[in-house]
Give the backbone structure.
Amino acid sequence: MSNAAIPITLQVFEHQTIRIGNLVHGIAFTKSLWQKLAIYHEQHQGKYYQLLYDGIKFKQYVGVLQIGTCTIEILPKIDRLLEEDTNKWQKVLLEMLDACQFIKLDTQGFGQVQLRANAILSTYFRLFLNEVQDLIKKGIPRQYAQNEGNNKFLKGQLVLPKHLRHNLHKPEQFYTRYQTFQEHHLLTQVIHEALKVLRQLYLPPQLQLLLTQIQIGFPSPPPYQWTPRDFEQLLQNPRYHAYNRLIELARLILMNFSSDIRYGQHQLLAILFDMNVLFEEYIFQQLKKTSGIPIKISRQRSIPFWQRRSIRPDIIIERNGEKIVLDTKWKILKSATPSMEDLKQMYIYCRYFKASKGVLLFPSASLELTQPRATPFLDETSHIYCQVQFINVIAKNGQLKIGIGRDIIKQI
C-alpha cells in the first residue's frame, strides 16, 4: 500500500458522539470515513459503536481503529466534566494495557515524547516487529520432518525389515528413515502472514523501514490460510514457549484485520477492548500484588442461575474465613448511591456465593467522593452487607496509579 496519502488521527472518548462534518481537534469526520465504519458496524453486528444516520456514537470499547491512513483512537475517560486531555488518557490506556499484561511497554523512553497521535497502534506494531527482528538475530527455530523410503545411498537409519522386503534383489538401494529440514513451518507461516498484513496498512516511516528490513531477512513461505486453531497449537507447544509473546502479537494482528472489497484499497485493523473488562483485569492484577497480607484473591467460575443462564462475580476475596464479593463498575457515580440494578446484582452474588459482604468498586479520577461504610441489606434471614467504594485510578502526576491493591483491601 502506498504511504503517499496524508495520515490523520481522530482521538475520541468512549461514549462520545461524532457527526459527519464535525471537527475533532481540528480534523474533520468525513462521510467517506462514516461509510467505511458503517461496513465494519454491519460485519460485527453493532458491537463496538452505534451507527447514527449522520454519525457514530461510541460504546464502552477503547483502543484503535485504522482504515487506510486514518486512525481513530478511542480513549477511556471518567472525568467528563473536566477539560478533555487526550494525552493524559492515551497514556493511561497504554499503562493500563501494560498493567493487565495486554501489552509490554519499554520502561525507558516511554514518556511525554511518545504521547503522539497513533501511539497505541504504533506501539503494537513496534513490539511485533522488534520481536520478529530478535527472532531473526537469534536464529529462526529449525524444524525437521520424518521421512522413510528407498534411496540410492545410505542416509539416516536403515529400516532393516522393510529394506529386506523391498530391496532383497536391489543391492543398489537402501530403505532408510531420515529427517529433512523444513524451512517453512507453522511458526514462520503465521509470522509471515502477519508481516503481509502490516505491508497493507499505513505505518509511520520508521516502522515502514523496519518492516522492509525484516522482510528481506525473513523466509518467504507460500501463501498460507491460517485458522485460530493454529495459534492454540503454537502456544501449547513447549518448544515455542520462548516465542509466546511474538505468537500472541501475530494473532492479535491477524485476527483483528479485515480485508473487504467494499473498503476499496483501504484495509481495516481494529484492536478494541471492553473498558469494563479492562478495569476488572486492572483491579484483579493490583489485588494480586498485595503481598504480605493474609488474603486469597481469586476469580470465580460461573454457576447456574436459571435455565441456561449463569452468574459470575468479578473477584472473590477471602480473609480470616470471611468471603467478600468484589464487583468492578467502570462508570461515573456523582454520589455514593449505586443503581437498584447494581444493588440487586450484588445481593444475589452474596447469597449464591455465601459471602458476608459485597463491594461495588467504582473509579474516580478527579472528584473526591466520600467512602461510605458498609450497610446491611434489610434481610432478616441473612446478614449481608454492601459497600460502595471509589478508587482513584489517576495519580497526581497524571499517570495511572499502580500498587493500589493495599488501598482497596484497607477500605473494605
The CA atoms of residues 107 and 263 lie 38 Å apart. Residues 106-115 have pLDDT under 50 and may be disordered. The radius of gyration is 27 Å.
